[in-house]
Amino acid sequence: MEIIILPTPEDVGRVAADLISSVVKAKPTAVLGLATGSSPLDIYHSLATRVAAGELDVSQASGFALDEYVGIPLEHPESYAAVIARDVVGPLGMDPAKVRVPDGRALDIEAATAEYDAAIAAAGGVDIQILGIGANGHIGFNEPTSSFASRTRIKTLAPETRAANARFFDDPADVPTHCLTQGLGTILDAHRVVLVAQGAGKAAAIAAAVEGPLSAMCPGSALQLHQHATIVIDEAAAAELTLSEYYKYTYANKPAFQRFE
After folding, report:
1. Gap between the Cα atoms of 99 and 44, Å rounded
2. pLDDT at 260 over 70
3. Residue 82: Cβ within 10 Å count
4. Under a CB-based contact definition with an 8 Å cutoff, are residues 246 and 4 in contact?
5. Is 142 annotated as catalytic?
6. I need a surface site. Which of 80, 140, 208, 239 has the fewest CB within 10 A?
7. What are phi and psi of 231, to 5 degrees?
8. 253 catalytic, yes or no?
């Protein structure tokens, strides 16, 4: 893992966007792994600004969303299909036909999830996977006790996850109880991963994922097994890291040839 600690949430979005931009510029047809939620919004805003300024072209890239609620209507504003279209595809000028979201309305969930993993593999794998992390350590919707070998599948959302997502719905009772999510094994297959986190509410989860033991109780710790994972966080999210000063020193003294243009 490379740990990058920055002063503000805006800095987190900018630096993560730098990394994603470098991947797309090197490979215009890159496959992007797209996360939803509040954590990656600054990334998408920063990328959209670059697209609008003519500094970045994402029109040839394709994308696979991390997850989707089960049973939610496609047209619902909080379906992840709608969120991805609104926050990512439109602002970045991506081709909607090249961006897929798990089918939470499928009659045969097992077939739909197996086909989703097969589609990712057929695309050559995800070039860079964007991730956030939940306060309980989940990535995607891989809740605690998820297998590190898991593939895209249906999961029951933890009560704390439903409570955290209730702010997006008119009534907390409207938050779906189940989702489809890329599994930890699917996520670990990505060629590169960038995880972002902001705020003190994520500090314990970041400490467990980065410095804690490998544990199914903190699904984010699976990223310790990835050969190319970058964790970009603000000072508040870094508050419980034991080696925060070392991470800052390491990033500040990173060799020039390893920095992204």
Report:
1. 15
2. no
3. 17
4. no
5. no
6. 239
7. -110, 115
8. no
Q: How far apart are CA 249 and CA 146, in angstroms?
A: 34
pTM over 0.90: yes
CA neighbor of 130 nearest in space, from 139, 138, 122: 139
Exactly one of 138, 142, 189, 226 is catalytic; which is it? 138
Q: Is there a contact between 162 and 173 (Cβ–Cβ < 8 Å)?
A: no
Active-site residue, selected from the candidate residues 87, 117, 136, 142: 136
Q: Give the tokens for residue 221.
A: 């710790």
What CATH number should be reported for the domain whose range is 2-253?
3.40.50.1360
Q: Which of 178, 193, 184 is nearest to 218 (CA)?
A: 184
For this structure, is 143 an active site residue? yes
List of residues 6+ apart from 107 with CB closer than 8 A: none
pLDDT in the model for residue 255: 77
Integer Cα distance of 127 and 189 in angstroms: 9
Q: pLDDT tens-digit profile of 178-205?
A: 999 999 999 999 999 999 999 999 999 9
Residue positions counted in the chain: 261
13: alpha, beta or left? (left if phi > 0; alpha if psi -120 to 50): alpha
Which strand ranges, in their side-by-side order, compose the sheet holding 128-131?
2-6, 229-234, 193-197, 128-131, 31-34, 62-65, 99-100
Per annotation, catalytic residue among 18, 42, 103, 143: 143
